[in-house]
Specification:
CATH topology of the largest domain in chain A: outer membrane lipoprotein receptor (LolB), chain A
Structural class of chain B: mainly alpha
Largest sheet of chain A: 12 strands, mixed
Strand content of chain B: under 5%
Distance between the termini of chain A: 68 Å
Number of strands of chain B: 0
Oligomer: heterodimer
Number of domains of chain B: 2
Number of domains of chain A: 2
Strand order of the largest sheet of chain A: 7-8-12-13-14-1-2-3-4-5-6-15
Radius of gyration of chain A: 22 Å
Order of helices and strands of chain B: HHHHHHHH
CATH superfamily of the largest domain in chain B: Winged helix-like DNA-binding domain superfamily/Winged helix DNA-binding domain
Number of helices of chain A: 7
Number of strands of chain A: 15
Helix content of chain B: over 70%
Largest interface: A-B, 39 and 49 residues
CATH architecture of the largest domain in chain A: Clam
CATH topology of the largest domain in chain B: Arc Repressor Mutant, subunit A
CATH class of the largest domain in chain A: Mainly Beta
CATH class of the largest domain in chain B: Mainly Alpha
Shape of chain B: elongated
CATH architecture of the largest domain in chain B: Orthogonal Bundle
Radius of gyration of chain B: 20 Å
Helix content of chain A: 25-40%
Chain lengths: 306, 194
């Protein structure tokens, strides 16, 4: 055994020498531009409070981000001009949506199985405040909203017929990864563009269908593993989890399975819906009021937790 | 667009063009998952965009970016404490997520896994990122002499671990699993590092 072999092997294991590294760098470039664009919009808001008359999208990075997103989309997807145009349009919508989602928004997440509602969750957020209502059938928590306003967690308990002030979010399950703060961080990841960009980048052969209301639906296939990236272990089984915390069942449990995916971009240029289907199942995320969801209000009649 | 903003944009583009691959590579082997790595890269360059005037010129900019990436990743890990232990275990699996057909690659991954986190970081900053001991000291914020000592120790431990694993693999291939067990027992019995 020589020293040469061990260190030569180490050098060859450098991530730079792995296939796909160049693509990873390109994807990172996209993400960087998106993050700077989003931060630019946020920075701009604070500047506007002090200095009127400056255009909303004044920061050069935002314009650069949109142009670059379009350019990168062409590189990532390749293929026909139509495919490239579709990918560029989705990228632009993702970038716009992510900038607005940074402020506020509403999403409705639904899963159906054999045509029946399987799970449903309604999420609203504005700044750091968030409201989550689980409307999944047959769950004890179904219909009970959970609200975080100004760092205080409020829970709605039907048996007590009212709101309960549970206390500061920071004191609840700290470090477990399941606190409302962790949930909010995870939801922001899912909403804020990272998830959308990954799905768009993985979509093969998107086709375009213009709708009468001015929206456009882009359809293609995406490997399940690119949508349900989170892995876990539940009831003795390895599982994959979709954004917003729903388990990928049946065919979707295989990360290589191509799933039919449709992304709807509204006439206003924002992402409106992502729908994923596979035999027996649908998974839908519907976005609304990105950047214009009303501030969440703390319930006035909340009782202290006893 | 104002001239100052144009100039700022050009400087940032040049910085990104020069060092994005380095930051992506570093975050890839340090983060717990590909998405964490991408997130960290975005945070590093967002910080760079905001603090562009504070970034030193030349190769020192690269060291500045590594140091920033290190802080970003540390914050990321703190904010996801529950995932941190898993991330640490998976960090090298993420580099080569797919099963490798190259046995040396597997040996490298296992040998790196067996090193302490700090030894591993120092070694890879040197071998994968090409930093000098002085630059490593800047990234880790420790004296140069400390970085040099850690690097020496990490290289020695890596080589020793790799060689043990390679010998074991060689025995397994040529004599079957039983030989591996026997050889391992003998090595342990003599407390050897043969």
């Amino acid at each position: 055994m020589t020293t040469f072999r061990s260190f030569e092997a180490l050098r060859l294991a450098n991530p730079r020498s792995k296939p796909g590294f160049a693509t990873t760098v390109e994807a990172a470039a996209d993400q960087v531009r998106l993050r700077i664009a989003a931060a630019g919009a946020a920075d701009e808001r604070s500047v506007r409070q002090r200095r009127a008359g400056r255009p909303f999208l004044g920061l050069s990075a935002v314009g650069a981000a949109l142009a670059a997103a379009a350019a990168i989309a062409v590189v990532v997807t390749g293929g026909t001009a139509e495919t490239a145009t579709a990918a560029a349009a989705i990228h632009k919508a993702v970038t716009l949506s992510a900038v607005s989602a940074n402020e506020s928004g509403t999403v409705l997440v639904r899963m159906t199985h054999d045509g029946q509602l399987w799970a449903s969750k309604d999420i609203r957020w504005n700044g750091s405040d968030i409201g989550i209502t689980d409307n999944s059938p047959g769950r004890a928590s179904s219909g009970s909203p959970l609200l975080v306003v100004n760092g205080i967690l409020y829970d709605h308990e039907p048996e007590r017929a009212g709101w309960v002030n549970v206390g500061p979010v920071s004191s609840i399950d700290p470090g477990t990864g399941t606190s409302p703060t962790d949930q909010l961080a995870a939801i922001r990841d899912d909403i804020g563009g990272t998830t959308l960009l990954r799905i768009v980048a993985a979509m093969t052969g998107p086709t375009t269908a213009r709708q009468s209301d001015g929206s456009t639906i882009y359809r293609g296939t995406v490997a399940s593993g690119q949508i349900a990236t989170t892995t876990g272990f539940k009831e003795g089984q390895n599982i994959r989890v979709f954004p917003f915390g729903y388990v990928a069942h049946d065919v979707a449990a295989d990360p290589a399975s191509p799933l039919d995916t449709a992304i709807t971009v509204g006439s206003d240029g924002f992402i409106r819906e992502i729908a994923v289907t596979w035999p027996g199942w649908t998974y839908t995320v519907t976005y609304s009021n990105l950047g214009s969801t009303a501030p969440l209000v703390a319930p006035a009649d909340a009782q202290p937790l006893r | 667009m104002r001239e100052g903003e144009c100039e700022r944009g050009r400087r940032f583009d040049a910085l990104f063009e020069s060092y994005s691959a380095d930051v992506v590579a570093y975050c890839t082997w340090r983060a717990g998952s590909a998405s964490d790595a991408q997130d960290a890269v975005a945070d590093v360059f967002l910080t760079a965009w905001r603090r562009l005037d504070a970034i030193p010129a030349g190769d020192a900019a690269r060291v500045w970016l590594y140091a920033t990436a290190r802080r970003v990743l540390a914050n990321q890990r703190r904010s996801t404490q529950r995932r941190a232990a898993l991330a640490e275990r998976l960090a090298f699996a993420a580099v080569t997520d797919k099963p490798s057909s190259d046995s040396d690659d597997d040996l490298v991954r296992e040998a790196l896994h067996q090193l302490g986190a700090l030894d591993r970081e120092v070694l890879l900053l040197s071998e994968w990122e090409g930093l000098s001991p002085a630059q490593i000291a800047s990234v880790l914020r420790c004296p140069q002499v400390t970085a040099r000592g850690r690097l020496h120790r990490a290289r020695r431990r890596f080589r020793s671990t790799f060689e043990q694993l390679a010998d074991r693999e060689h025995l397994r291939r040529h004599h079957g699993p039983a030989a591996e067990v026997r050889a391992t027992s003998i090595t342990h019995a003599f407390g050897g590092d043969s």
